[in-house]
Amino acid sequence: MTSGSFDNLLNRFVLNDSLHQLFDAVDAISVQGYDEQRRVIYWNKGSERLYGYSKEEAEGQKLEDLIIPDEIRTSVIEGHLAWLNTGKEIPASEITLRHKNGKKVFVFSSHVLFVNQYGVRQMYCIDIDLKDLRQAQAQADFKEHMLESIFDAIPDLFFLMKSDGTVIDYYSSNTGDFFSKSNDFIGKNISTLFSDDQTDDFQAQMDNALKQKSNTQFEYEYSLHKVPKHFEARVRFIKEYDQVMVIIRDISEQHKAAELIRHQAYYDNLTSLPNRFLSLEQLSRLLQENQRSKEKIAVLFLDLDDFKKINDSLGHEVGDKLLIKCVKRLQNTIRKQDLIGRLGGDEFIVLLKGHTTHEDISKATESLLKAFRTPFNLDGRELILTVSIGIAMSPDDGDSASDLLRNADTAMYQAKELGRNTYSFFTKEMNVIMQRRLELEAQMHGALDRQEFEVYYQPQIDVSNRKIVGAEALIRWHNPVLGNILPDEFIPVAEQTGLIVSIGKLVIRQAVYFLSEWKKEHKKQFNMAVNLSPRQFRDEGLFEFIRDQLISKNIAPEQLELEITEGLLLSGKSYIKETLNKISKLGIKLAMDDFGTGYSSLGYLREFSFDVLKMDRAFVQGITNNKSDYDLVKATIAMSRSLELLVVAEGVETEAQLRMLEDLGCDIVQGFYFSKPLTAREFFEYSKSFQYS
């Protein structure tokens, strides 16, 4: 290169040296320089940051190969050539270019054309990054459209007002009712918009909110097209602008749902009567109202007798229909001022007001009993249903709803004890009985773990030779707090609490163990009688448990005798029949216990494979001085002979009873005449001084 040519080249670029220094100092803006062939002759730091190419990568590269997207490549080239050839400038504009990584770059691009002293034209592009601006604009657009969408989606009525309540703007997405008449709202005070008299509450609430300048919300009712509707108004103050926003929402559906929930919470679904919660609330309100009067409030606790048997035998659908008919009878019997509620199941409460004497309350109660004496006709079937009623009176028997209900419940149980189909007034003595029951329940929980239960054995004697042939296993309970508790007292509690299942397993386990010990010592056949309660049959594993106990101790099934009552068979449950058949097929003997005290249906003796019939002690003890008892025992033994059943008489206490039973042909006896129930150790000692088979 000659000295002259080098100088010419130098002069071409020295002209822009000071300009480049300026652009280098401003790296927040992208500045690029191009020659007439659109090759990069300048690339500042701002360009490196915006487009990703370093100065070294960019220099000498053509504009269209660096940052121009394919879709505008032709127009950019043509625009540059037109500027060079015709002088038509490239206008400044927003344009989308391309980053080194291929992503879009949004810029505001301005262009300038320099001609130096050598006539060389150079184009400089000044690009400002619009990324943040574009994002902000997109966000603003999104928010604007989102707000419009929200307004369209929400079925609310929006008012924007001055602080004095004058409406300055309004919006509603609902165009089908008066809410859409925005022209009628603008410029008016919101308190005057609803001229209907029924919106007095709305106007009062709104006026108060505007006066107090406090955020609030309230509900009001308004008839729209003659249809009552419920609305909620929310008032919000915008202090910065001294404005108020009111949002009104139609909550009619929510109001209906709330009413439905309230009805479900306070009323019984089947009978539509007040439920337990509402009944107690009504009773509490009556007690408050009557604090100054001398009138008494009678709380009647009603329980339908043997309703469970109907439910179990005929099904819950029939039971529900019967309950509805019972409610109608109760409602037709009580007075308008009296209240009735359903406590649950087959239990009801009746609140009698305005009575002052026991005689008045007795008459009202007897009317309720009388209403149930007529059979119910249900689907062509006549059903007889009686009711037991317990009565507690305020203020004598309590001054709170819970106390009165509890005492009426206690009195109802007394009515059950009196034979059902009757009523009983509460007495303080009943509380003693109930307290005892609660104590039994409390102590019974954990009694098995504390090993407080023990199995006793009462000898069974062959009448013909006076030898021991077996024993009846009887549970006994000694509690360190309550002492010895009789079975007649704790067995019913165990039945109701369900603990009888665990207690029953203990008896079976101990009884089978006793048989194994007897077998080791005497090498003789021995019979063990064990009582089974109805509740035990609900245990699906009852049969398997009994079978496994016999197998574990190598005891023949015929040595075990299971005693059941006729009441168990009345339910007609299929699982009871199946379990009894399994027990019988295994070889275990079945005994009908307490024969003569229940329904005494001979059909059960034919239907099930009974081996033993056991006569109740009440008849045995009366055979020496009561002809009817004697005749019943005689007939029972004769019937058992014809059915090939073994007869066992319990409760034998005298020589005279024993001889009479012997004359009548009784097979086996047990009772205090021979021995009281003994512990296992006592029984073995007793057997040593007694003949045994």
Average pLDDT rating: 84
What class would the helix/strand composition place it in?
Answer: alpha+beta
State the strand order across the main sheet. 18-19-21-22-23-24-25-26
The percent of residues in helical segments reads: 40-55%
Number of helices: 26
Count of distinct strands: 26
Low-confidence regions: 1-15
Shape descriptor: elongated
- Report strand %: 25-35%
End-to-end distance: 144 Å
C-alpha Rg (nearest Å)? 49 Å
Biggest sheet character: 8 strands, mixed, barrel
Q: Describe it for me?
A:
The protein is an alpha+beta fold. It is built from 26 helices and 26 strands. α12 runs antiparallel to α13 (316-333), α16 (428-444) packs across α17 and α18 runs parallel beside α19. Residues 1-15 have low confidence and may be disordered.
